[in-house]
Amino acid sequence: VIVTLMALTLIVASGSAARFVAQQQPATIRLQAVAFNPQRGERPAIAPELSLAASQTGRGYYIVQFSGPVQEAWKNDVAALGGEFLGYVPDYAFKVRLDAAQVSRVQSLANVAWVGDFQPAYKISSQIERDGSSRLYRVRVEQGVDAGFTAGTIAQVGAQILRRDGNMLLVAATGGQLTAVAHVSDVAWIENFVFNEKHNETGAGLIMGSNVANAAGYDGSTQIAAVADTGIGGGTAATVHADIPASRVTAIFDWPAASAGGCYTAINDGAQDVDSGHGTHVAGSVLSDGNASGVGKGTAPAAHLVFQAVEDFADMKGQCSLLYPDGYYLLGLPDDLHNLFQQAYNAGARIHANSWGSDQAGLYTLDSSNTDDFIWDNPDMTITFSAGNEGVDANNNGVVDNDSIGSPATAKNVITIGASENARSDNFPCDTGLGYTSHDPYQPGQTCGSMGGLNWLGTAGSRWGFTTEPLNSDPTGGNAEQMAPFSSRGPTDDGRIKPDVVAPGAWILSTYSGMYQEGYDPSANPRNGLFQSDGWGMPFNGEYKYFGGTSMSNPLAAGAATVVRDYYQKAHGHAASAALTKATLINSAVDLLDENNDGSNDNDFPIPNMHEGWGRINVNAATDGSLQFVDNSTGIGTGGSVSYQYSHDGSGPFKATLVWSDFAAAEAAATTLVNNLNLTVTAPNGTTVYRGNNFSGGWSQTGGSADGINNVENVYVQNAGAGTWTVTVTGANVPQGPQRFALVVDAAGGGVPTATPTPIGPTPTPTNTPVPPTPTNTPAPAGTIHVGDLDGSSTAGGGGRWNAQVTITVHTGSEVPASGVTVTGSWSAGGSASCVTNGSGVCSVSKNNLKANVSSVNFTVTSLSDGSSTYNSGANHDPDGDSNGTVITVVK
Questions:
Q1: What does the alpha-carbon distance between residue 341 and residue 823 come to, in Å, rounded to a whole number?
Q2: Which of 38, 72, 309, 551 is surrounded by the most beta carbons within 10 Å?
């Protein structure tokens, strides 16, 4: 097969772009709260109590809608008048901060179609829960304002501020108070608070084909993969697990949780994995090298690990004690996930595995938006999330229902992983030396020995309550062509295809944390008097146990992403973007044959579908050299296009996959796609055209319309004729451009191409000539640190005296929170104080028992030290403006 590649970039002049836009029909404003077409005289139908009572004065928030697909010059015209763009609103609009006096001038611009108030109703999630009782909410304060001042304003309406992390607030409020919070001008978004939860070898090696890829030398050795989870083994590099040696542990970071006043007291247990053993199991599935027989081997057995431990014990208080029991929760996860990802990125990780999330039933949340934003800013960071374990058959039709994807798995730019079934030739053995009775409710009264040394798997009916056939009697493991019924299904609330792909997630055997193992250790965890969870069934032995859930499919997929990046580095000398890694896994995925678990491989739900997305990962096919790729880093804008040509011998299908890491959506938007690219494929006859995602029966069809929802588009032509095929990527509407993209093409019918594609134009394409592997993920060298924020507060003491407290936030030179920094300072009332920053870069000092006649006290930061970085005091600053970043005054 001879494959040729040509690229042509078409630049649309501003004049022709304006003529193109003038032909557009009046566009609808699409928000979660309401949809309306202001150009047709429609007005939003919102409740009076969630509408502004009067016109905004001073600097306020507005929706500015343009007359068609957005040109950069139009945005520049608004910015020149003083407008600040804050988030894209479909269609063709933005949330913009303006002075009231500027509104009429913006409205008069030639390409502005409409300007209107950003109403309080637009700030509230469509899934909000509120009544007369007090509930917990997450509130985001708009960027570029004083979050501390806004928090104070919220408190004045009666709502309780339980926690603040930057511009993210945890708030307790009644329904009436929530309405008042929405009227606070600088409040940007309000959504339900939901605790993040865990989404609880053969699967990777045989079913996903990683054994073949590993044998070919693609084993992750050039990559660093990060895992954020409960904890890992004994909490140190030397005590992770025998199959993950200290030489492959780049870093372990503990994220101690901060207590939330009136909700819970957090009790830190460090980075050890003491309760579920979830984090150790997940890390092993990514990169364990297994025992001598291959038991417990992960997908990328030579990769290096960055681990972030985010679980702590919570002693619930007040209202929260009525909603949640005491126990272990993922409390260390920061309210702003940028901080989590940035720490791993700075340590060299370019893959980040997350087997956790909150049950949001397809909703795009603050966490989704922040994750998308991080990938937009760091396009070489591949982030995977488990889809969730909320699969149900509520209508009892024997098919798992749609719309249960959790968050942040609803993010556009992540790879969202669902769970298929696992199959093992050894039939899931357990340790017959264990004498205690199984804790698995589906193995009642049984020991491993009484089960004959093999775990009883149970059925979907007995384990998860599915009452209708074929799900009710379907075994929970043993058929690799089936979906796991518990796996959350798509689409997202705005109709996007999720999950992206699936991997085995039932009865996965992986590494067993060495902490508090029943039958192997003499005593239980003193914190709660319990042994570590056995996982599913009974353990294989003291080194390995079974678990199930999309928590288990996700790390196998993250390991696959690690192997794919390793392949591009070793075979092509190329550091793959997140978009290219995702496109490669999707293009090479395999369509499951029994998605509805009826025991017949009849493919009742061909791809794409909301059960498996684009299919089950095939690591071998992703790395066998048969795929051609473009990893575009220059991007295209509205009206631009790039075309590529491929010669195909007609021996098999022609498959093209387009993926782009999109700009983060505004939470208020009803549809989350911001930059809309379109994929078209033209057959050799020059007249037959296939559009992205127009599928029937698992294959592309002609006709249809362009996809304006997804940032993944595929064209799979089943019976592709011989000749030259043209693949075109077009910028339909790129309001936040230019938009980079990745394109992966299988034009060889599965064969290895005999020639290297040659690019023409600005888009570089690596050759297929293998080069020696070069590690690309070397941790960044130590740099500078400085104070990024100082906040002061005071409390009353006894006998008329009072106490002063100062909270210090430390940043690196790139404004990333710096953990493990010792802060030293002095009080004007005498004495010094020091503290060490946590995973969010924050710590506090206090001066107690100040006399009543002392009206104020100053605290001066004198040094910052982490043993390697340089303290740059000249960079100290305070975004709130209540200090100069070095000295703060605390008033009684």
A1: 24
A2: 551
